[in-house]
Amino acid sequence: MFHLNDKTIYNEDTTLVMGVFKDKKSGCLDELDKALEGRIEEMIASGEIKTETASMKTIYTLGKYFHKKIVLIGLGEEKDFSKEILEESLKKLNPDAGKNIALCGCCFIGGDVGVKEFVEVSVETIDYYNYEYLECKSKKTRKEFDVNILAEDQEETFRRAIVLNEAVKNTRDLVNKPYNYLDVNGLVDYANDLAKRLAVGADVTIRVYSKDECAQMKMGAFLGVNQGSAVEAKLIHMRYIGDKKNDEVFGLVGKGVMFDTGGYTIKQQMNTMKCDMGGAATVLGVFEAVAKRQIPINLGVIIAATDNKIDGSAYLPDDVLTAMNGKTIEIVSTDAEGRLTLADALTYAQREGIRKIIDVATLTGSVVVALGEYTTGVFGNEDAMADAFLKAAKETRESAWRMPITKHIEKQVRGSKVADLTNSTGRNMGASGAAAFLKEFVEEGTKWIHLDIAGTAFHTTPANGEYYGATGVMVKTIFRYLETI
Q1: pLDDT at 159
Q2: What residues contact 312, with CB distance under 8 A and at least 6 apart?
């Protein structure tokens, strides 16, 4: 789909895409204007060609220019131009513009956007907004087109963007799969296949623990959630060694609840609960990108995979479970199950020697109430780590916001009359309550971030022009953060 300076598809039948600033004209646009005897300037002056951000105008050159068809996109004022505005300007570009498209790099440089930023944002944006999930369709007709990015000396930036595109796409595909297409065993198969493919070019290994092996490790919280399921729980641990001279391993823990009925605290509405493994898909996407790019770090990915279903042996409200670290947990709600799986996964990661961890989870409806569907909640126990992560989020244009874990909510988590902890503190401060619960399983000396992607991982009513369903959120941000540590 994407090419960089590919002369073979750069011909007169290629649709040329050019940017038009309100207060600046690029050399290429000036050349076009001269070829058309000043018509571009005339149309801008008359308002026929608009320069407001993301406005689009198609013109035909009638043999007066190399390209027969040209799409002009408004970029606003040059001084205000940014990566965010570039993304907004390009997200409606699709195969309707032509089967072959060439983006004229010199027309999109200004403000905070240089050539590198142009290549990065263009490749990521066009791919993201033209994503489709067609696996379950009987007729898989996909609109395809070739996009040629015209920019010099940006091969490395281009390759990085292509790798990230693939990782985000695979993450979205995983989350979009219905449960009958992807259960625990299907996720294990995917992880095994991914590890096999990545091991060709990188030091990648995988270990999958059975339910019995998890029981031997005393993962009572994780396995409690699995009690009502006909599909046995599995713990997935993937390893990438990119820095053999360093023993430090960074950990990514992903919530892998393949479908969540709520258990006996049954959900009134459970459509889209196939997305409750969004955290697991996210960390797999990051792992893929890190290994393909051979980032010089050591990375461990841990996924406690199960579903949360109901049968005669399912766990109940008032049950008390004992987690891997020995803490007991009163079950107030069987629908607060994700934190139980993450609790044992976090303990396992630390027993493997991992002391820097990001966990990713579609954890609470409360975070959606607080931040909406386009901002991820960020919690953590170290300011420097959280600040560096938020900086990465800003660079990748993924909205994230630091959220509190207060002494008050920690006291509520420890407020059970019959056990060490309660697994739910109710709706008020619910996202902070879930984070405070997880913090109980973060040992002294471990640096930790928790990402609540319940609102951002899956969109049923997309408001920004993206495809229905999975978003692949936080893959780019976590990858960017790992590049900088």
Answers
A1: 98
A2: none
